[in-house]
Amino acid sequence: MSAADRSVAGASAAPLERTLPSSWYRRANVFKIEKERIFCREWIGVCREEELPDPGDHRVVDVLGESILLVRNREGSLRAFYNVCRHRGSRLCKSPAELAASTVALPGGITAGRMIVCPYHQWSYDFNGALIAAPHLSASGGFKKQDFHLYPVGVESWGGFVFLNLTPGEALPLAAQLHGIPDRLRRYPLAALRIGATMSYEVAANWKIICENYNECYHCAGVHPELCAVVPSFRDGGGADLDWSRGIPHRDGAYTFTKSGTTSRRAFPGLDADEQVRHKGELVYPNVFLSLACDHAATYILMPRGADRTDVACHFLFEAHEIDKPGFDPSDAVEFWDLINRQDWAVCEGVQQGIRSRVHTHGFYAPMEDWNLDIRRYVTERIGAFVGQEPP
Ligand SMILES: [Fe+2]
């Protein structure tokens, strides 16, 4: 046996790292623990700042069944609250979909951009969550309005993304969660970029499967032939030697993620020489992905809807002056990404289907999927002790 043969034999004999248990990707009770220990305690991305530009602008965000009211106050700052009246617990505001489905017109909600009024007994709150008025209750009767502030939710922004924290009393600052990401992306004008297009997807897969797929390129050669035509290095060694810190090189003559590898848009000013021709990616735990080309960003906000279902909002961000140009057409990037996205969702859904099998107790990570050891650690640290207390 030659040295090369021995090394191959040795490599194949080496034990592969195990994935999380398959049950963690499919069980409703594990999803419930993830809701409490991850999505209600970490900062989670929910939208872009530009989607609520003016005082009074608001949206109802469903975070794994918790209805959150996000509003821009009169001073221009974002505030968020549980969408629950402090009086009897009524829902304060309906989402557009809930309004459309409603057969009864009730008063209340956000009124004329001035306050939040409960549709039940008309308790009203300002955009900082303070109770302004409760009909027929007065201080002379011992009623103290300051005792009835809306339940707060943390709001912070970075890079133009709005993040919420549903347990703000125990939350670290967003910056502590982002670690080195802002520094690594400091030359990209993320906060100033604007949404040029959005694709929304409903993926029949657990959110962790989608994260794991984003974190490895072992699958790229087989699943993404069109992408590999622009980025041939995705085929090399299953993506084992990709240098994400420096950026991924394109084929000669290509410098961005479009079918042709080129675009009429300019590169963001201020990028270094590598960033002008290479591609970078970041996974912002637990639910935001950033894919950065020299002229656009493809960004993903995951919102789990159940153990086996995840909504994904994919925003394509561009410089405002590009969007404002007559005839602005983002389709060179959008159509290319949409193809890649659909390929990814298809394989993720295939995993979700496969791991339902009674024989599959866990999978394995190949060495070139090492980044997923980080996801395994991240999830295990947060829910491991709690899942152990659950019935199988
Ligand atoms: Fe992929």
Structural notes for this entry:
By secondary structure, the chain is α+β, with helices and mostly antiparallel strands. The protein is 26% helix and 25% strand. The chain has eleven helices and 18 strands. Helix 2 packs across helix 11 (371-387) and helix 6 crosses helix 10 (331-354). The two termini are 46 Å apart. Bound molecules: fe (ii) ion. Fe (ii) ion binds next to helix 7.
Concise structural overview:
By secondary structure, this protein is α+β, with helices and mostly antiparallel strands. It has helices at 3-13, 28-39, 96-101, 174-178, 181-184, 207-214, 220-223, 225-230, 320-323, 331-354, 371-387, and strands at residues 17-21, 44-48, 58-63, 66-72, 78-82, 109-111, 115-117, 124-125, 131-133, 152-158, 161-165, 194-203, 248-249, 278-284, 288-292, 297-306, 309-318, 362-365.
Can you tag this structure with a few keywords?
disordered N terminus; 11 helices; binds fe (ii) ion; 392 residues; six-stranded antiparallel β-sheet; alpha+beta
